[in-house]
Amino acid sequence: MVRLLHAARTDVGMIRSGNEDNFAVNASGDRGLFIVADGMGGHAAGEVASEMAVQTVERELAGVRDLDDRTSVDKVKDALRKANRNIHDRTITEVDKQGMGTTASVLLLSAQKYLIGQVGDSRVYLLRDGALQQLTKDHSYVQEQVDAGFLTPEQARYHPYSNVITRCVGASPDVEPDVYQGEVRVGDLFLVASDGLTGMVDDRRLQMLLMSRAEPERKVHSLIAEANGRGGLDNITAIVVQVANDEEK
Question: Which residue range(s) make up the domain with 180?
Fold first, then answer.
């Protein structure tokens, strides 16, 4: 048996006056649901969009336990599409919510498997055997430029349009989420984060911080402190999940 050790925190950062990020953690034993949403839109509308996305997805996926069941992929997509509809409907009926939207990255874990649903540029990483891998792919302008060979990943980091996303939850009547899945091993460490972290802290530094022997709570604090130390230009949200043997404390 395995146990999921986890910690999560959000921080306003050093520049912004409000926090438009939201997150949810719902874990018991060897089953976990972890969500990060990074909202956009003026007059606190981004905050509303990210909160709606997190609440809808958490509610829709509350009963999903068997990740080997083929319907679980459809359930993740449907949950994100429902969040999209709820938010989009509200942008139509409430004038001050026009243009609001949010990213959403959803990580479902069982003892054997992970399942990820993603829209936008909030990321999920896996640290396994000392190697850090980004499991999701950003829906962003710069990622498209990297894919087309016009930018290197390093150039994309510092590009003036690095925060422009090409897909989000709530902006259009429909959205197509990406889904990723794979196996889980004891010792795996997952990170779900908004771009307030990943835009400020490069992958090599993330890897170093995640490889420390500290418990998840300390790791989350270190990640947020690092992003703030580098300028904290955006809201920062991080969830760290460690897959441990049931005997480990």
Answer: 2-134+168-245
From the list 22, 237, 4, the residue with the least C-alpha distance to 114 is 4
Global confidence as pTM: 0.96
Q: Is 209 helix (H, G, I), strand (E, B) or coil?
A: helix
CB neighbour list of residue 102: distance below 8 Å, 6 or more residues apart: 37, 38, 39, 40, 46, 49, 50, 52, 53, 87, 120, 168, 169, 170
149 belongs to a structural domain:
no
- Show the tokens assigned to 95: 């004038």
Q: Residues 241, 109: contact at Cβ < 8 Å? A: yes
pLDDT in tens, 143-154: 999 999 999 998
Q: What is the pLDDT of residues 77-131, one digit of tens each?
A: 999 999 999 999 999 999 888 889 999 999 999 999 999 999 999 999 999 999 9
Structure tokens at 7: 């910690």
Structural domain tally of the chain?
1
Paired sense of beta strands 113-119 and 31-40, if any:
unpaired
- Which residues have C-beta within 8 Å of that of residue 186, sequence separation ≥ 6? 2, 243, 244, 245
Instruction: Tell whether 41 is covered by a domain.
Output: yes
In a domain, 140, yes or no: no
Return the CATH number at 28.
3.60.40.10
